[in-house]
What we know:
The complex is a heterodimer.
Chain A: H1 7-10, H2 41-46, H3 68-82, H4 84-91, H5 104-109, H6 116-131, H7 133-138, H8 149-159, H9 167-171, H10 178-191, H11 197-209, H12 217-235, E1 250-253, H13 257-260, H14 264-278, E2 282-283, H15 300-317, E3 321-324, H16 329-336, H17 338-342, E4 368-370, H18 371-380, E5 396-398, H19 402-408, H20 412-421, H21 452-473, E6 477-480, H22 483-496, E7 501-504, H23 505-512
Parallel strand pairs in A: 1-2, 1-3, 3-4, 5-6, 6-7
Chain B: E1 2-6, E2 9-13, H1 27-36, H2 43-59, H3 65-76, H4 83-89, H5 96-101
Antiparallel strand pairs in B: 1-2
Amino acid sequence: MAKLPKPEELLQINYNPPPTEDWMDRPVELKQGNFCWGAKGKNLAAVEFPNARDWTPVEADWKLPKDWEGTVLEAMADRLSKYRSFKVFMDICVRCGACADKCHFFIGGGDPKNMPVLRAELMRSVYRKYFTTAGKYLGKLAGARELDLNVLKEWWYYFYQCTECRRCSVFCPYGIDTAEITLMAREFTNLLGLNTDWISGPVANCYMKGNHLGLEPHAIMNSIEGMIDDIETITGIRINPSFNRKGAEILFVTPSGDLFADPGTFTAMGYMMLFHELGIDYTWSTYASEGGNFGFFTSNEMAKRLNAKIYAEAKRLGVKYIIGGECGHMWRVLNQYMDTWNGPADFMEVPKSPITGTVFDNAASTKMIHVTEFTADLIKNNKIKLDPSRNDDLVITYHDSCNTARGMGLLEEPRYIINSVCNKFHEMPDNTIRERTFCCGSGTGLNASENMEIRMRGGYPRANAVKFVRDKHGVNMLANICAIDRATLSASMDYWVPGVRVTGVHELVANALIMTGEKERETNLRGEPLPGKGGNE
Amino acid sequence: MATMDFQGKSIEVDDDGYLLNLDDWSKELADHLASLDGVTLTPAHWEVINFLRDYYKQYQIAPMIKILVKEIGKAMGPEKGNTKYLYELYPGGPAKQACKYAGLPKPTGCV
């Protein structure tokens, strides 16, 4: 595995493209530390993906199927006719360059092919050759080129260096959404069996066992029981969540990372403590045990198949609606795709808080609300008792996850909650938050360990903004509402901004939450001493 | 896919050197895998490896560090049930390094 350079080495970035050479003439070079391992055949076979076999990106022979060019071009024609967005984005770019310096990978790496305009051009050039008259006859003069093995390898390298965060689209005067182009590139490469191990493993797990990590029902229950023990140690209160319970009012679905990886587990403890205190009639499911959807990084069809189990389980259990946990791309899928893929979910009711009576009309169709919407409403209606001083050792800033911010406009609720449960909160600079937020650098299944260099490069702009508030305000905790963030930002903070830790919002909520009958708390959810030992004094 | 020669047998490993087939594992192979990293396995190392294998047998997944620390503490006392002790034993990370010697797949963490 490639050794990760030191931060000061990584920051020697050259933003000047090589002189005179045309970008098309520059063959792709797969640099160690910047790409993920190839998929294993057994994981591709498990979901009946094409060309299932083991493959290794650094080897010259990618073991491609016969007439792979035909397969790609046929799929391209199909998607161009099916998705109007794709067609439009292939045609309309005027190369104004507004997007060029907005991508975290370009900022952190300086590779011109990571400028969104050029990333898209990698595909547009092929589109022109086969789908436009000018490109067909004028070739390179019209910016067109043939699809060959080098082009395919270039696609693979750079479209698996895009996290579909959509920051560039915010700045594009046409609103060209590079994520839509990357989604298509991933579909095409997937048709040739060119998936990565880090994506195809979780997809196979999720398909067979219900979640990305491959947690079987008894592993899920064992993990949650461990959390319950910890909650009892901290609060003196024993809580009893239920699993796969028919007739529950609410189904709760969260990313499996919350069940099996720190600091996500503290967030999961937070959900359970809050629901217990309110007496919410909810159930976990060991079948629909994954909110996230790595299928979304392979093909729309696979994403749809994995997503289907959420509504299926809601129907089987007869719940009234669904609450979803803190996750990023999970919400892009739930908010923008689930209803058309697997809906209408008219066997459920429009979500209505059993505590405040608030009706969440925004989820009238999907029947699924985000847990921060639910909790912000509780606080707004004064339904929970909070002692923010328990979080006084923390100086907090908030990272908007790309997908919840740009994919569903969830900007105020998390901030409202944080400001209600903590006393010390500082925003990062305006051009790095809300709809202009920077990606964590490792979304869309790039959070493996063999590609650490590109992850740290992509994570640099976000980390740099955190460093700014750390130096200015003493920020020591980075809050977010995404399981991938909780894992990936921990790594990029350790690398770029040591001393800043990472937390989910509901961990902060549960620390501040005064529960009925609790003992005087000595520690926070991580088992660390509380500042001034908490209480209401 | 990479392979590794051991005792006249070709053993399949992944790109990071983790065994692909749990059944290929033996105590001798664990010693061999450790020796490739310049590590000699002591009884203290074996306590962790044995726990990992038992856990994997039961749950088909490697435990997260928190569970490993808790369970080792329960079984072997608080002086061993802490992160510091486990990282001293396995500087490459108790999950990643110990799982490799135990013949388990590479731990994925959060996906």
